[in-house]
Amino acid sequence: MAFVLVMAPLSRHLHDRPLFERLGHVPQPEVLKAVSADQAQAVGAAMVMKVMIYFGGLSDETMNRQKTPPDYPAMYRVISGAVKLDPYNMDAYYFAQAVLVWDVRKVDLANDLLDYGMKYRTWDWYLPFFAGFNNAYFLKDYVKAAEYYRSAGELSGSNLYKSLAGRYLQESGRTGLAIVYLSTLVKSEKNEAIRKSYEVRLKAYRVVQIIEQARDLFQVNHGRLPSTIDELIQERFLSAVPVDPYGGRFSLSPKGEVRTSSNFVFGRAKNDERKPE
Amino acid sequence: MINAIEITELMKTYRGKRMTRVEALQGISLKVCAGEVFGFLGPNGAGKSTTIKILMGLIRSTSGTASVSGLDVNRPESRRFIGYLPENPSFYDYLTAEEYLRFVGGCFGMPGSLLSRKTEEYLKLLDLWDARKRPIRGFSKGMVQRLGLAQTLLHDPDVYILDEPMSGLDPVGRALVKEIMLDLKRRGKCVFFSTHITADVEAVCDRLAVIVGGVIRKVQRVDEIMAQGVEAYRVHCTDDDQALRVEPAALRETLAKLEQGGRKVTLVEPIRAGLERFFLDVVKECAAEKPV
Amino acid sequence: MYVIALTTLRGYLRDKIAWSVLLVAILFCGVPFTASLSMRQVTELSLTLSLSLVSFVLLVLSVFFGGTSLWKDIERRYTFSVISLPISRSKYLLGKFFGTAAFLTLITLFLIPVALAAVYVASHINPPDRPVLWATVLICIGFDLMKYILLVACAFLFSTVSTSFFLPIFGAILTFFAGSMSQQVFDYIHSDAARALSPTTKLVATFVYYVIPNFSAFNLNLNAVYALPLSLQGVLLTASYFVAGVSLLLALACLLFNRREMN
Question: Average pLDDT of C233-254?
């Protein structure tokens, strides 16, 4: 009886604990590796699983606009610890790329992880594919990106990535690059939380692409860049106000780049609304 | 002629805790022949078990030699000719009685058909045949003891070393063991057994040794001990329930008197101080000798 | 010796604890489900989990039975009736060892199809990028078995000098962990990062490295899980190390056991 009475509040307490607490403290990977004896892979997998479950629960909360800030540094720590235990664990690299890069923009950290992984997973084209995208899209280092894409193309045995890379490896091709990247991944993704995040992002980029196409048409017709989104709608280059799935509002920079107040992250739009530029 | 058991100047010193030394055996010597039932008598802690453990190669002597059937006891082969029954034996309790005997026979390298025959024979002899399919775990103490005896008999050895064979047995079991010992004697085997119960010795032994404090005090024929020291006679007559106790000097006279009185004497029994007294005297003697 | 081994094996098979291993086999049913939580490596995760389970079962059994086998015989005074049989103590010890090794082998043979079935199911739900190298997986489990047989030999060595089960059991556990991490420590002290360590520490660590069994050499999990090629030379060397190590430990154990007094 007492057990039942205690159980409900206890589980509520555990659920409401701050997230970093739930992700837990992870000992030094070297120590962990030493004591895990021959179970290093299993421990590594368990660490990745822990982060994934944490993230799975988190995505819903974030999408429901709850205020808890995700503990990205802790997630990174656990993931990088996991690959120390098992440098072959693809889930770890994949997760780092899928979440850390987009949501925290720790592109350098992600690239370090990917480079580390490439030393071990020498057959895997996904890793250079990710690294290529990171370099091109986020860092705008097209030379390095091309190298990674070539390597991905060679490993995958198809020229698809090489040719894609050639087509999009330039400033104006970023949106196309992102769309190719995301639709490649969304097809093979089976983790619900991550696929959802891909789908939302893909949707946002498709909207951005529509706006960019409208902008380009406007420029051809008028010989100048449009100054606002509203101008595009008024001139009937866009049929309606484009919707940001992240809840932000689209705008155009003076250089004509498409921006959104959400910055492609859930929850940020709210703050911006409260404190407009 | 090779003695069945030969022990020469055997010494055993245990090193206890805090550098104490216990001299369990202080140079004992003993010869036991084939066809002899030999009782090894002594109070608790006298060195009986130590001697037997040395004979079985369970512990090593500090000095001196011991051999069974002419083979040094440190060689495993010497045990091929020994049937050994440990004190309070304990066997792999997950095996059944039958499996255990087959295991023992296997260790002795007995051929399968002989082993099957002997297993059946001895399980029946020791009244374990009905329990042969049951795990030893469920056996009573007496049953385990009988199984132990079956094991010692199984490979038909020449020498039997039995450590307290009567302990844990009921009167029926004791009688059975005595019978088996006498049968072995008839077949010319050597039986060496330790005990602290003098009645057992009296019933079956040819000779006995008394060990006290790691020293053999006496080695003597049982019939010699029995012959000496008749304390009195018990005279039974017809039509009288009460037996008469008569001093040896007065026996002749008493018998004559009874006959004159017209009563028929049916039985005259000697009352001996017996083994018990003999044993106690030896132990007492030793206690007196001790300086402390 | 053969009789002793067989009887020892029979004892294990009649032990209730041995049957609880069957319960662990039920856990294997959960492997494909757990593995399907993985995003990118369902088959690899199922292999990791299966190998972990097999290894864990063998660890528990080898520590428990390896550590208590001899102790139990002495404690329950079975040794009196067995050692007094015309077999040498070495043969008795070796018989018990091979009985234990045979038991571990039987358990492994029982677990292999269960583990492989779990991996097979997982690999059919989500085919892996690189096909599972079944032969490598089998070799990996075989080396796991060797590792634990070596551990049993260690536990037996401890048993010959111990009067309780404490030293054999905890000695075996400690040896297992020390032997599993010794390579890592050895690599570390010979790396640049360890330049600050005192030479004495390094010497002691190097000494310990050579004295205790190197269990990490038997760990082929990475090769099995990620279908990495096996080095033939490495496999042969490790197998030879196994034979040499077990022989050495058993020789030492026999030596000590022969001198032991059965009181």
Answer: 95
Residue among B58, B92, B103 whose CB faces C84 most closely? B58
Q: Write the Ramachandran bin of C75: left for phi over 0, alpha for psi from -120 to 50, otherwise beta.
A: alpha
* B267 min Cα distance to partner chain C (Å): 47
CA distance B86 to chain C (A): 7
CA-nearest of B208, B188, B213 to B43 is: B213
- How does DSSP assign C99-116, residue by residue? HHHHHHHHHHHHHHHHHH
Average model confidence (pLDDT) for chain C?
A: 90
Sequence-distant (6+) residues with CB within 8 A of B252 are none
The single-letter DSSP state of residue A135 is I
Beta strands B82-85 and B159-163, pairing class: parallel
Residue B82 has φ and ψ, to the nearest 5°, of -115, 140
Chain B positions in Cβ-Cβ contact with residue C89 (cut-off 8 Å): 76
Residue A175 to residue B1: CA distance in whole angstroms: 109
> How confident is the model over B192-237, as pLDDT tens digits?
999 878 877 887 889 989 998 888 988 888 888 877 767 777 788 7
Please report, as a single letter, which amino acid is at residue A8: A
Q: Please name the chains neighbouring B, where neighbouring means 3+ C-beta pairs under 8 angstroms.
A: C
pLDDT confidence bin for B291, thresholds 50/70/90: low
Residue at A99: amino acid letter: V
| B239: alpha, beta or left? (left if phi > 0; alpha if psi -120 to 50) | left
Nearest chain C residue to A41 by CA: give it. Answer: C48
Scanning C55-84 for CB atoms below 8 A from A yields: 55-56
The domain limits of chain B are 5-226, 231-289
- Any A CB within 8 A of C183 CB: no
Residue boundaries of the structural domains of chain A: 16-57+70-170, 203-274
> Beta strands B37-41 and B207-212: pairing type?
parallel
ipTM (interface pTM): 0.85
Determine the residue type at B3: N
**Beta-carbon count within 10 A of B22 CB:** 12
CATH topology of domain B5-226: Rossmann fold (3.40.50)
Rounded mean pLDDT, C78-102: 92
Q: Calculate mean pLDDT across residues B45-70.
A: 90
Q: List the single residue in C3, C77, C84 with the smallest CB-CB distance to B56.
A: C84
Half-sphere exposure of C58 (CA within 13 A, CB side): 33
Contact indicator for B273, B231 with CB cutoff of 8 Å: yes
Chains that touch C (3 or more CB pairs under 8 A): A, B
Q: Mapped to the 3 state alphabet, what secondary structure does B152-173 carry? A: HHHCCCCEEEEECCCCCCCHHH
- Is the distance from CB of B12 to CB of B61 less than 8 angstroms? yes
**The pLDDT value given to residue C219:** 92
Residue in A30, A34, A91 closest to C40 by CB: A91
C177 interface with A at CB cutoff 8 Å: yes
pLDDT by residue (tens digit) across B239-258?
Answer: 666 777 777 778 888 888 88
CATH class of A16-57+70-170: mainly alpha
pLDDT tens digits, one per residue of A160-214:
666 666 666 666 777 888 888 888 878 777 777 778 878 888 898 899 888 988 8
